C-alpha cells in the first residue's frame, strides 16, 4: 500500500484517507435520513479491508458524533486505524487549558490515548493568539497525546507563522488541510502549495471530488430533463450543481471518462489519482461500503505523465 509521511518526520499514513464529515452530520449531509450508523460502519470496515487506515474527523462534525462513531468502530475491529481530528478555535476558547480540554474530549470520544494528527480547524485565534495556540499544541506533542500538529484552511503566510512558532519549540508543522481538486486548484497560485513544499508540510486535500462533481454522477443533461435526484445537503446551495455550472465542467468529466476507460477506472478514481500524483493526500468521503471501495480504487496504479499534463491543461480555469 502506498504511504506518505506527515510532514518531514511524522507518522506514515496511506496515500489516500477518508474524510468523515458526513458521519453523524445532520446539518449539511442529512445523516440519519438516507444513511446512518450502519452504513458508515460498513464504510469504515470496507476502508480498512481495502488497506486504507487513515481517517480524518473533527470535534465539530456532528457535534462530536463523528468522533464517537469512529471510537465505537475501532473498538469492534482488530485492524489498526490512524486518526486525524481537529480543534475548533471558537472565541471563548482563549487559554491553553481550553486546547487541552478540547483534546481530552476528542480522545475520550475516540477512545484512544493519542491521535496521529491534531489540526486547528480554521485560522482563527481571537484572544488566545497564534503563538499561545501553537505553544499549547507543542505541549500536547511533548505529553504524547498527539503525534503531529496540523492546521486547516491556513493561507501561505498563516502557515509560515504557525511553522515559526512551533519550530521555536522544536515541533514541526506537519500538515495544512485545504480544499483541493481538479475544480479547485487555487492553492497552486496563491502560495500555499509552494510554501508547503518549502517548509516540508504535507497537504491534505479535502473535497477532492468537488462534493461529487468529479464523479460524473451529476450532469447538465439530467438537470435539463429534470431526471436527476433532488440535491441533498450542502449541494442544494452550491451553484456548481445547477445546469450552467454542470455544463461548464462537462468537458472535464468527458476527459476523466476517457482516461478512466484506458485504465478501467472511474472518473472519480482518475481525479483522486491526479491528486496523489501532485504529492498530496486526498481525503474523499464515504457514506457506505461501496463508496469506500470506489475510493480505494484510486490506489495501486498511476496516470501517465501525458495524462497528468492533459488534465492539468483542461482545468487551468480553476487555478
List descriptors.
single chain, 319 residues, alpha/beta, TIM Barrel, eight-stranded parallel beta sheet, two-stranded antiparallel ribbon, 11 helices, 14% strand, oxidoreductase
Please give a quick description of this structure.
This protein has 319 residues and is α/β, with parallel strands linked by helices. It has helices spanning 37-49, 65-75, 96-110, 130-143, 156-167, 192-199, 220-225, 243-263, 267-277, 289-296, 305-314; strands at residues 3-5, 12-14, 18-19, 54-56, 82-87, 115-120, 146-152, 173-179, 202-206, 281-282. It has one domain: NADP-dependent oxidoreductase domain (TIM Barrel).
Can you describe what's shown?
- With 319 residues, this protein is of the alpha/beta class.
- The protein has a single domain, classed as NADP-dependent oxidoreductase domain (TIM Barrel, Alpha-Beta Barrel).
- It contains 11 helices and 10 strands.
- It has helices at residues 37-49, 65-75, 96-110, 130-143, 156-167, 192-199, 220-225, 243-263, 267-277, 289-296, 305-314, and strands at 3-5, 12-14, 18-19, 54-56, 82-87, 115-120, 146-152, 173-179, 202-206, 281-282.
- It has an 8-stranded parallel β-sheet with strand order 3-4-5-6-7-8-9-10, covered by helices on one side.
- Helix 6 (192-199) links the parallel strand 8 (173-179) and strand 9.
- Helix 3 crosses helix 4.
- It is globular.
- The model has no long low-confidence stretch (mean pLDDT 92).
Amino acid at each position: 500500500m502506498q504511504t506518505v509521511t506527515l510532514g518531514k518526520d511524522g507518522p506514515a499514513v496511506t496515500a489516500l484517507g477518508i474524510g468523515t464529515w458526513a458521519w453523524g452530520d445532520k446539518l449539511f449531509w442529512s445523516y440519519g435520513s438516507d444513511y446512518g450508523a450502519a452504513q458508515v460502519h460498513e464504510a469504515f470496515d470496507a476502508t480498512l479491508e481495502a488497506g486504507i487506515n487513515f481517517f480524518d474527523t473533527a470535534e465539530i462534525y456532528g457535534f462530536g458524533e463523528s468522533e464517537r462513531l469512529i471510537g465505537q468502530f475501532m473498538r469492534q475491529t482488530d485492524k489498526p486505524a490512524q486518526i486525524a481530528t481537529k480543534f475548533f478555535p471558537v472565541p471563548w476558547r482563549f487559554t491553553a487549558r481550553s486546547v487541552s480540554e478540547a483534546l481530552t474530549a476528542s480522545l475520550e470520544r475516540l477512545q484512544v490515548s493519542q491521535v496521529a494528527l491534531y489540526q486547528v480547524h480554521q485560522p482563527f485565534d481571537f484572544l488566545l493568539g497564534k503563538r499561545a495556540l501553537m505553544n499549547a499544541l507543542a505541549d500536547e506533542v511533548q505529553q504524547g497525546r498527539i503525534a503531529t500538529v496540523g492546521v486547516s484552511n491556513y493561507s501561505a503566510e498563516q502557515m509560515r507563522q504557525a511553522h515559526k512558532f512551533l519550530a521555536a519549540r522544536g515541533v514541526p508543522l506537519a500538515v495544512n488541510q485545504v480544499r483541493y481538486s481538479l475544480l479547485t486548484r487555487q492553492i497552486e497560485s496563491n502560495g500555499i502549495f509552494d510554501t508547503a513544499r518549502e517548509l516540508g508540510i504535507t497537504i491534505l486535500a479535502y473535497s477532492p471530488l468537488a462534493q461529487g462533481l468529479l464523479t460524473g454522477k451529476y450532469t447538465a443533461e439530467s438537470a435539463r430533463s429534470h431526471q436527476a435526484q433532488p440535491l441533498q445537503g450542502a449541494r442544494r446551495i452550491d451553484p456548481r450543481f445547477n445546469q450552467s455550472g454542470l455544463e461548464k465542467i462537462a468537458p472535464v468529466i468527458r476527459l476523466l471518462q476517457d482516461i478512466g476507460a484506458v485504465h478501467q477506472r472511474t472518473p472519480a478514481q482518475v481525479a483522486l489519482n491526479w491528486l496523489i500524483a501532485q504529492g498530496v493526500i486526498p481525503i474523499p468521503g464515504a457514506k457506505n461500503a461501496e463508496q469506500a471501495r470506489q475510493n480505494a480504487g484510486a490506489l495501486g496504479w498511476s496516470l501517465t505523465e501525458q495524462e497528468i499534463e492533459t488534465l492539468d491543461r483542461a482545468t487551468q480555469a480553476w487555478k
